[in-house]
Design a protein that fits this description.
224 residues; alpha/beta; Rossmann fold; 7-stranded mixed β-sheet; 7 helices; 31% helix
Length: 224
């Protein structure tokens, strides 16, 4: 990953993200929780012993990982030391690090990368995905969540986020190609976030719509 440019946004990340999302779409922690909840559902009944939040940033997802996986050892990696300081306040028990080489021989049963890879330059994404695969235990699972570039609302918000100014979204088909090139085997995928807050009562239908390329985001589940 590139230099820790998110250091400059660490203290104001939450505020900037809130300002970029229209009131009708803004749900604070829902966007962070739904990814972890989907991951937990996809992994059940397995109980991962060690989980890595790759690109954890200020740690918005870590409290939900602790909630849904109370028995797991939580780790968080990010290139921004300033962001990790905030993450440490949110989840003091998580093991946080910014030097990938410090990982050594530690291996994880599951890795989640939530809206991280669009911040990685395209020519470095395969290498980053290979690093994640190398950090997985045999049979381990990785969950990649990304914005759907074909969703107009997603693109509208994306283009107004100051910390996404140098980022580049990529499609589900591109994510699947990268997964194969990085050496991952069995993959599953789907689109998510079809219904905004005013239509939240319809969210129970989303699993049935996962093949429709209309969701605001998508996921790829990869197995080592």
């Amino acid at each position: 990953m590139s230099k820790p440019e998110f250091d400059q946004y660490a203290q104001q990340y939450d505020r900037l993200m809130q300002e970029a999302i229209p009131d009708g779409l803004n749900e604070d922690g829902y966007f962070a929780e739904y990814k972890v909840a989907l991951m937990a559902q996809r992994l059940s009944p397995a109980r991962p012993r060690r989980i890595l939040d790759f690109g954890c940033g200020a740690g918005r997802g870590l409290p939900f990982l602790a909630q849904y996986f109370p028995d797991a050892e939580l780790w968080g990696y990010d290139v921004s030391p300033e962001s990790l300081k905030i993450a440490a306040q949110r989840t003091p028990d998580a093991r946080l690090f910014s030097d990938w080489d410090a990982l050594g021989q530690t291996r994880f049963d599951a890795i989640i990368a939530a809206n991280v890879f669009h911040h990685i330059p395209p020519d470095q994404r395969r290498q980053a995905l290979e690093q994640c695969r190398g950090a997985l235990a045999d049979g381990g699972q990785m969950f990649l969540f990304e914005h759907n570039p074909y969703n107009p609302a997603t693109r509208w918000v994306f283009e107004r986020c100051p910390f996404d100014a140098d980022a580049e979204m990529f499609s589900l088909s591109e994510a699947l190609r990268l997964a194969g090139e990085a050496g991952f085997g069995h993959t599953q995928q789907g689109y998510t976030l079809f219904f905004p807050r005013p239509l939240a009562f319809l969210r129970g239908l989303e699993p049935m719509l996962k093949r429709l390329p209309l969701g605001a985001q998508y996921y790829v589940q990869m197995e080592k």
